[in-house]
Amino acid sequence: MPAPAPPAHTLTGFPAAATAFVSALDANRQRIAEDAGVSATELRTLFKVARSVSITPKELADYLGMTTGAITAIARRLVEAGLLHRVDHPGDRRSLYLELTPHGHDVMGGIHHDFSEMLAASTASLDADQLAAFTDALTSVAAEVRTRLTRS
């Protein structure tokens, strides 16, 4: 007789809902990356550069948890795709900044627009007060999760 199968590990309640939400956003991010013709890591790079406006490869490597060599390869690919360009660092001739190109700004603008429309459609069943409460709760939970990440 075969051994019984091990029990399934499932979440319930809020942890299950949070996992489903994160998984849905991750699937959306993967679709966005595919539509933009970039990898998921390249998309994260574009989002960070867009938020920062101008960032050094070292800062980007620290943010993404990668080596500067890996960032050099990613940046090279995004420069070749016309999404990023390199800008000389005014205080250090051996360093540079990465910034979005005009095409990169257009791509990010489209991504933000599409994402905002998808979320608006996804929350259409909520009234203004419910949406405000959901926004506040999501912001609070995200901040708490980040706080717990820094604790050792």
From TrEMBL:
GO terms for biological process: response to stress. InterPro entries: HTH_MarR-typ, MarR/SlyA-like, WH-like_DNA-bd_sf, WH_DNA-bd_sf. Pfam families: MarR_2 (PF12802). Residues 11-143 form the HTH marR-type domain. It comes from the Bacteria. PANTHER family: HTH-TYPE TRANSCRIPTIONAL REPRESSOR YETL (PTHR33164:SF43), TRANSCRIPTIONAL REGULATOR, MARR FAMILY (PTHR33164). This is MarR family transcriptional regulator.
